[in-house]
Amino acid sequence: xxxxxxxxxxxxxxxxxxxARCKGRWEWRASIENPGSGERQSFANLDQxxxxxxxxxxxxxPDPTTLPGT
Length: 70
Known about the structure:
By secondary structure, the chain is an alpha+beta fold. The chain has one helix spanning about 45-60, and strands at about 15-20, 25-35, 40-45. The chain contains one helix and three strands; from the N terminus they run E-E-E-H.
């Protein structure tokens, strides 16, 4: 779920954060939305959001052997 443009590696997300009480503690919840498609993904905590974003970025790293001029 992302707007993908291989030529410039640009990503756009609308981030929503909210607090929720869970087992007597306040925890942050998060969701990201693709503004182009309206597709939304939710996360139970900020760690899950961070892992998801790191995985998305790792997948978007271009292969240096396919870059122009190489």
